[in-house]
Design goal:
about 180 residues, 6 strands, globular, GTP Cyclohydrolase I, domain 2, four-stranded antiparallel β-sheet
């Protein structure tokens, strides 16, 4: 065991300590970071957390999920033991899946200010429905088209009139343009 910490790891208070009590809530948890020694290079870090649990805010029943955190670090990297304890803290938290994923993203961004980050949560079925939530930072300019391609606008078909063409036409009585 090392007796003195290297300067680049100063400020880490959880790693290397025995125990590590689980915080009672994410608000009481501390996400720690260390200096990115390869800050001039863009690279991706992925944390895969298959045992995420939280509580349904309505029923109090446990919810089980799989959280994946992908990010491109800037000056800081997320320390994994603090992340583990932070995610464990959700076990006592009444929170919807959508809120949990966005909360995790916000807290990661606040802690390390990455160049880019995505948090994905895949939650086990409850009532026969599984939920997958993905949140990104920064939000791509056309985020809806990347995440939900159904929202892309299609060009009018060749045999159909476009909305611009329809504006100039008079509507016949009893005929619906739908």
């Amino acid at each position: 065991m090392r007796t003195s910490a290297q300067p680049k790891f100063e400020g880490l208070t959880i790693l290397g300590r025995n125990g590590g009590a689980v915080p009672l809530s994410p608000d009481k948890a501390k996400l720690e970071a260390f200096k990115n020694v390869y800050a001039t290079r863009n690279y991706r870090i992925r944390f895969d957390c298959p045992e995420f649990t939280s509580l349904c805010p309505v029923t109090g029943q446990p919810d089980f999920g799989h959280i994946v955190i992908d990010y491109v670090p800037n000056r800081l990297c997320l320390e994994s033991k603090s992340l583990k304890l932070y995610l464990f803290a959700f076990r006592n938290c009444d929170i919807f899946h959508e809120e949990a994923v966005n909360r995790i993203l916000n807290d990661v961004v606040k802690a390390i200010r990455p160049l880019a980050a995505t948090v994905t949560g895949e939650f086990r079925p409850r009532g026969g429905i599984a939920i997958r939530v993905e949140a990104s930072h920064p939000a791509p300019e056309d985020n809806t088209q990347r995440i939900c391609p159904i929202f892309t606008w299609r060009k009018p078909e060749a045999n159909r009139a476009s909305p611009r063409q329809l504006r100039g036409r008079k509507r016949k009585k009893g005929v619906d343009r739908a």
